[in-house]
Design brief:
mainly alpha
């Protein structure tokens, strides 16, 4: 196992991690921005108002994107297990 292989596996792992986390982060960000705009317009400065909509948005994102995330994880794990024989 060469250092280049380790770097490639690490880079691919980070890429897959970012792909899997991005839908939840984007949904949470969008809901946070919308709630922030609503709070600015109505001048309601309640800090806890953002948490429930964000939790719901992230939960919905997980439900919607779960099949896609599972396919990514399964394909990545399959590639890693196939590479074990060549190492």
């Amino acid at each position: 196992m060469t250092p280049q292989m380790v770097i490639d596996i690490g880079r691919h792992t980070l890429y897959i991690t970012l792909l899997i986390a991005s839908p939840m982060l984007i949904f949470g960000l969008l809901v946070g921005v919308v709630i922030g705009i609503i709070q600015a317009v109505t001048q309601i400065n309640e800090m806890t108002l953002v948490f429930i909509p964000k939790i719901l948005a992230v939960s919905i994102a997980v439900i919607i994107f779960m099949p896609w995330m599972l396919r990514l994880i399964i394909s990545f794990a399959t590639k890693i297990f196939q590479q074990i024989g060549t190492m």
